[in-house]
Structure formats: structure tokens, C-alpha cells
Amino acid sequence: MNATGEQLEPDAPEAGRGGRPDAVHASPLGGMIRRLRKEKSLSLKQLSLRSGISIGMLSQVERDVSNPSVRVLSAICQALDAPLSVFFEPVAAGAEELDFVRRAEQRPVLQLGYLNKELLSAKSAHNLQLMILHVDRGGSSGEGLLSYPAEKGGMVLKGEIVLQVGGREAHLRAGDSFAFGASVPHAFRHTGEEPAEVFWIIAPISIDKQL
Q1: What is the pLDDT of residues 2-43, one digit of tens each?
Q2: CB 3.0–4.6 Å: which of 52, 93, 96, 166 could bond 1 by disulfide?
Q3: Dihedrals φ, ψ of 204, to 5°?
């Protein structure tokens, strides 16, 4: 149930469609969510109440029967008090291990159907998440708007998307950049013919900073 009391329903896309680089690996998303839930001693019902996601949808996600949308995954992250980066599968480390560097061949990916997220952040970047969103035709952040305490910004690298921030929309093409403040409701969807790639930056802020 979200802030307005609305029960969030599944709006997950069909699995396995989002574009992705050859060098990355898919994350076992369902198993990771189940492990984090059990570590916090939460039942599916309790997680459902915290996140506003139906028990049926949570069960499908944990069993990897259904891919969650960005909106649904964000609600699960907030309910588990976990950053999105924990859902990316670690890639085997190379000979050189520098915690402030992410090598091109060491980028993990999170598959969400028509949308995949490629992690760019180095291990030491605990409060700054850098990623590339690979969005196929039909891909979006899901039904409704996203809102969570983090400043966002980025640039369209390829293709076109429509970005909604608050009550306004912008049609963005390759080279266009954007930035907006924490907790501003937002959403995005693919438009155009070719798959889109978007450099996306998330900078979480503490509750104290907002007060």
C-alpha cells in the first residue's frame, strides 16, 4: 500500500527482453529478495504490508515467475531498507582490485524484462549509484510515479525516452540531460523505434537532510 493507501498491483513486463551488454551477468533477483526478507525475519504478509505490494506478486517475484517493474522493486527496496545495488550479482574480481574502480568487464546487470540496469558504481560508492538503463520498446518504470528520498540526474546516451517529473513531461533524445530533487514523483517510458540507453545517477539523502 503506498502513501495514498493504494495497493500496488503487478505491472511487470515479460521476462528477458531488455537490451544488455555481453559482458554482464543477470542477477538471481527472486532469491536475493527472499534472503533479505528472511534475514529481517519478515513474512510475505509483513513485507506486503510494508511495501504495498500484494502477497501474490511478492511470491511470484521471489520465485522468479514474474519480473518486477522499477516501481515495484523500489517499493520492495524501501520496505527492506536495502539499496538497489544489493540486487546486482557480483562479478568475479580480476587481478587488480580497487574499490573505487568499476572495470568495464566487471559491470553486473539487473534484468527487469523490457528494462535492464547495468551497474557502473564502484564498491566504495555507498551513497552514489551510477548505472546505465537499457530500455527496449515497451519498457518503462511501471504504472504510477516513483518517489523516494534521492536526488536523480543523468543523460540519454541513445534512443529516446519520455521523462515525467511532477506534473510535467519532457521528450528526451540522445545528448539531452536532466536532474531533479529528492522525493519528486517521477516516471519514464520508452519512445521512438530503437532501444534507449540512459546514464542514470541516484544520490540517496538522509531523512535528517530533508528536515
Answers
A1: 433 434 443 443 334 455 444 444 447 888 899 999 999 999
A2: 52
A3: -60, 145
